[in-house]
Amino acid sequence: MKSYEVNFDGLVGPTHNYGGLSYGNVASQSNSQQSSNPREAALQGLAKMKALMDMGFQQGVLAPQERPDVAALRRLGFGGTDAQVIERAAKEAMPLLVASCSASSMWVANAATVSPSADTADGRVHFTAANLNCKYHRSIEHPTTSRVLGAMFADQQHFAHHAALPAVAQFGDEGAANHTRFCREYGEAGVEFFVFGRSAFDNRYPAPQKYPARQTLEASQAVARLHGLREDGVVYAQQNPNVIDQGVFHNDVIAVGNGEVLFYHEDAFLETEQMLAELQGKLARAGGNFQSICVPRSAVSVDDAVRSYLFNSQLLSRPDGSMLLIVPQECQANERVWAYLQSLTSSGGLIREVKVFDLKQSMQNGGGPACLRLRVALNETELAAVNPGVIMTAPLYGSLTAWVEKHYRDRLSETDLADPQLLLECRTALDELTQILKLGAVYPFQIN
Ligand code: SUG
After folding, report:
1. Ligand 1: centre distance to CA 104 (Å)
2. Catalytic site includes residue 271
3. Where does substrate bind (predicted)?
4. How much is the pLDDT for 211?
5. Model confidence pLDDT, tens digit, residues 282-329
6. What is the pLDDT of residues 243-289, one digit of tens each?
């Protein structure tokens, strides 16, 4: 049976702004308080989805969330009508209003961890929504994420959904941003590679000194258990704490994998040799031939990797078996990174082509091409069981761009977040979106 990797991209929400909310994420910190352009952000994301669809890849779309999250503000003690809740939060605790307005759910690589049916004990595709509990503004995403994923992958014969892990730092889980799957064919059993930043219960693992390690070993192990993965189909590796301290807040900022290939920076991991040997051995037992491409620090420094987001790229398989790398334009703007990419594609190796995308609006908050997509490997039968409303087509692209142009502002600054009209605009837009994507009622304002 045919199988595919389907990329579901997060549609940028109407409140996209630069709140400076993510300590440890260099771009989020350095662009704090700049005014944003939500319309441009959404159109840039849609252009990437359309381009991948036009190249023949399977592409889907994941809906944004209701923001401001008035229910979250109510839980923090702000009362009255919705407009009063926003007004009071703006007056008494602006940082909480900013957090409740974040459009951060666009980075759907953090929405969930997904295990394809070929890897799981019950032969279903498993999803665990990420608790994202390292950052308050992201910790409020998972209830809606679960409802949206449930509406997209509703068929229980093929899809199993798990609630987010316990909402404590010891089980900090950032979803697929720290999870990669290696396989020969997408529909065959593979090896799931979980990268963690620290251990919560075992102090033999070193932790970063400056910035938080968002993913714990114990969270990754819990996800592997929930999904029913075989021991032989899982590899754990620790991220180098020094690179976390240089702004590598997720593994997908320093490594990307696809098929049988891992593309990574020399400084990405601890115990790299042992990890590569384990990946090689386990993939060989699954019938695959593991290959790794190491980018030496002499060619690209960690700082250049963080600034350019070279590794936050999408590594895609083409029908002839070669691979294509989708990178943000910041890679082209960085002389050393661009020179490296030129040498990579002309070396006769597996990665033959690089395509550049303008995702500046998202990049300024630390979200590159890979952050914007959640990969779901599906066989033909499973793909047919996905809600067809969320699969990208030329007409859907047309409807979504028209929807963005109708509802989105082209400028948003912090003071605009206090405008109760913004909440109404967002709800009107999202109500229409659930009809376009045929999701049913998934937002708090639709179900409460
Ligand atoms: O969690 N930025 C996101 C970026 C997530 C990128 N995802 C991956 N690497 N997979 C984060 O730090 C910034 C929001 C703000 O500052 O307004 C933010 O949440």
Report:
1. 6
2. no
3. 19-28, 110, 137-138, 214, 252, 365
4. 98
5. 999 999 999 999 999 999 999 999 999 999 999 999 999 999 999 999
6. 999 999 999 999 999 999 999 999 999 999 999 999 999 999 999 99
User: Residue 201, exposed/middle/buried by CB under 10 A (0-12, 13-18, 19+)?
Assistant: exposed
- At 178 the pLDDT is 98
Q: Is residue 342 part of a domain?
A: yes
The closest alpha carbon to 437, from 8, 53, 103, belongs to 8
Atom of ligand 1 nearest to the CA of 31: 16
Cα 363 to averaged position of ligand 1 atoms, centre (Å): 9
In a domain, 86, yes or no: no
Residue 396 lies in a domain: yes
Q: Which atom of ligand 1 lies nearest, measured to the CA of 109? A: 10
- Give the 3-state secondary structure of residue 268: coil
81 part of a folded domain: no
Q: What pLDDT band is residue 448 in, cutting at 50, 70 and 90?
A: confident
- Which of 142, 132, 211 is closest to 177 using CA atoms? 132
Q: How far is the CA of 251 from the centre of ligand 1 (A)?
A: 13
Q: Are strands 373-379 and 3-10 parallel, antiparallel or unpaired?
A: antiparallel
- Asked if 174 is an active-site residue, the reply is yes
Residue 145: CATH number of its domain = 3.75.10.20
For residue 267, the enclosing domain spans 3-67+102-447
Residues marked as binding for substrate? Answer: 19-28, 110, 137-138, 214, 252, 365
Average pLDDT for 195-219: 97
Task: Count structural domains, the chain.
Answer: 1
Q: Are the C-beta atoms of 204 and 249 separated by less than 8 Å?
A: no
* Residue nearest to ligand 1 atom 7, measured at CA: 371
Ligand 1: centre distance to CA 282 (Å):
32
Decide if 250 is catalytic: yes
Q: Which amino acid is at 95?
A: P
